[in-house]
Structures
1.
Amino acid sequence: MVMNDLTVMIVDDSKLMRTMLTKILESSGYKVVAVLEDGFELLEKYAQIKPDLVLLDVIMPKMNGLEALELLLAKEPDASVIIVTSAGKEANVIKAHELGAKNFIIKPFDRDKVIEIIDQVMSN
Amino acid sequence: MLKLEAETVNAFIEPCLSVFEKLTPKVGRVVVGAVYVEAMKVSNSDVSMSCMISGSLEGKVVLSMKSDVALEIAEDMVGEAVDFLDDNAQSAIKELMTMVVGNAAVELGKKDLDINIAPVTFSYGFQEQIGSPSCPYPVTVPLLCDLGTVEIDLAFY
């Protein structure tokens, strides 16, 4: 396992997804510094924690991931966000890129694909 | 009554097959049963996940199954023993449903149908009303799995 100092925040309303992503990230040497359940929590906690990367779900109650992404990047334009969702329809992918997401991971995902995309974003 | 085209129905069946295969191999072989329409259908299963959709199609998609099947699927997804449908187990099968509908939205998008998906709701212990006055004739696709039958209902206005 390659250890690194990169910190990641996970935002997903699904407990299963939060657990799966945490395991994948930690087994690849990333440090998961916060695991949140919705967009409001992201907006509240991002500034305190300032992770190197945010993995953000789209379909969530209260505030969806694309709305949260727009609000986050308006306040924190340097935030790196990867969208992780099953709602991978073209319109969402285009909107996420326009809003400033660094990449898109489609559920269901493979562990290797998740790490490949994260490594790629973090190396940039 | 909205007339559902076969390719619209297929757009939901294909993701069921691929998501089940990837996330819950314990489901085993899945055979698509005879599609049927039942007036004002009430699910005969005690576990249902319901997802409201809007856009080019309006209505709801319901995935229903008996609780023993739901338990086996949740156990497979979570990767540990599950004795009852607790928050963790519910989260797992809700996610399964989200992926099915999300992947269906991708397929429908290729046919120029743009649909938006609401968060999935889970119900346990009672039989979900599928048909409604605005959609009295939902379309049901039974998926016959090694674990038991899972039904997907498409109730669009």
2.
Amino acid sequence: MSAAAAPLPRRKDLLDIESLAPEEVVQLLDTARPFKELFTRSVKKVPALRGKSVLMLFYEPSTRTKTSFEIAAKRLSADVTNFAVSTSSVVKGESVLDTVETLQAMKVDYIVVRHSSPGVPNLIARHTRASVVNAGDGHHAHPTQALLDAYTLREVLPDLAGRRVLIVGDILHSRVARSTSRCMHKLGMEIGYFGPGTLVPDTRPDFARGFTSFADALAWKPDVVYLLRLQLERMHASFIPSLREYHTVFGVTPARFRQIRDAGIWVMHPGPVNRGVELVDEVMTYERSLINQQVENGIATRMSVLYSLQPVTEARADDEGAGP
Amino acid sequence: MTAPLLFKGGRIAAEDRPDLIEADVLVENGRIAAVAPGLPAPAGAEVRDVGGKILVPAMFDVHVHLREPGREDKETIESGSKAALNGGVTGILAMPNTEPPIDSGGMVRFVRNLARDRAVVPVWTSGCITKGRKGESLAEIADMREQGAVMFTDDGSPVSNPQVLRRALEYARTFGAILASHCETMELSGDGAMNEGRMSYRLGVPGVPACSEEICIDRDLALARVARGRIHIQHVSSARGMEIIRRYKEDGVQVTCEVSPHHLLFCDEDIADFDTHYKMNPPLRTREDNARLLEGLKEGLFDVIATDHAPHTRFEKDRDFREAPFGITGLETALISLYDRFIRADAFGWDLLVRRYSAEPRRLLGFDPVPIAEGGAAEFLVFDPEAVTRVDETFMRSLSINTPFLNRELRGSVEQVVRDGQVVLDRPAGVVP
């Protein structure tokens, strides 16, 4: 594959969507396209990152995102190492920075990090020359999810400007809601939030409008309904009274599904789905459900991200010194 | 006997006078012998030219964490007292949330003895309200008082059970003792690590709503009214919380309160890149709170300025935002940062600073203030308004460096500190204990 787009100008890390200019978002999405075409070929690999090492630093269990990043890195011919965090020294009271110092000594080029605390990728990025990709930090950000969501939508709606996305569910605890809304907003979409008052905070960004019922929200005529995963433990902290009530009021019930289908609204979900909570089974086989495309596109967009970032390697530092 | 000291050519700050007045100051036998322009030097006197400098009554800080016993790696009574002196503070009140906590007469005596042997400025201590700071049963307040404790507080946590606090207020009233309240409703604070608001939402950091503090202030003051006790509200961070205190003050409840420099200077937006040097409890609120607290300070609603000096190791503060402990140091930067940001910018004058950070803190604990006046105790600073202090590791005497001012420069410098008639800190001469 030839380079379809020039790499981003000197961006070392991808920590959040907020710090990306809209053009950078578009460039990352455009760069993903040729990578996705690659998947239809018998040889799905390119040599772009041959000789580079990618370290997967997952402090939080994750199967889907981690696998997606691993496949992305391997298709770029990078060497992938898993740093088994749960069994390592973290349990012995070693700080994240101690770990990073160790990793620094291993001279990795990219660190893909997931952590339950917000800001850990920022902390690591400040202390390492490697490129850091945030694969989800607490409730803060999940930029590659946002990019794959935008990529998926662009496949079905070529011009996103002016399109409307309704995000439904636990906005408060969702890094996906934060990153995906920002990303879609940067691409010119209108954003609406609907969910229980306990989970849709007033402190959300101004660009996101709120609704008081699913009917009102659908009357706004969204092009996309994006359902967030409900963490089932929310029930125990008085955020919602019961899953039954959540589904009845905030879920895609058979009746709401018919409305959604009749209006031709696209449906998205970051997975994994709680069937019967966020949505009923029929939605999974709905022809305008994008849930499986989201997974597939995750690999292409993550390839684009890894390909576009520039670690501050020793050689690169020298290059900079020689510049004007 | 030490030689008399004559400070020539300086300008003098006082709590009751917005302008600085030019006068020489003669110190003899530990007291201020004369304050007047053009004083002649007595025989054998050491003359110090302080032209262009400001003479300021020394500061007193009623909210300091010294970490001894228990966490001597963060701070000791000795290092904390040196930090105080370095910042122009010649008296400090230690909080009792050490490990173990200072909750008995024996512990108070232990701390007072250590202070007497090792501290470079007088160190007073507070005692706990409840045994083990657990909020369950009253600590021996009378015995601790007997041993020298001058305030009672479970600082770091509220006394969550209102019945316990009511009893404590009533019991302490017997002796005229002051209770101090760290106001927080724990169920509302939860695992919050910063102010709840747009910024916490944006960063995905669990928030502490301002009402966590406000509800507790209201509750504690309602209890103080019923108990007819004396209560001091610590580190007010919310403007609404301040307004609640105003109401109770107007109602005649015996309440005093403090504001910390960081709640005047910084807000939650400063946390932008998850900088743990902006993580403290109560958290930094909004820019609007900064402005309204400053107004409250100027109106005289806040009785004292106090730092809540809270040393933590670099290792702990280098952890991620949620894991890192609450608190920043303050003793070494309070005076210069308030000068740099407010006095220099004409937001308020030296009189306010002297009143709120030197005179009133002493009065709060029943001590005499130290104005620079004939016959008074010689306890003042020579402050250079033009010099620049670089807040780096060589400057700091605290064992911890967790301050947002780390490696930054502030205008103003505490050049000399006089106590008991002697120059105990002389920066130009390299004498900085």
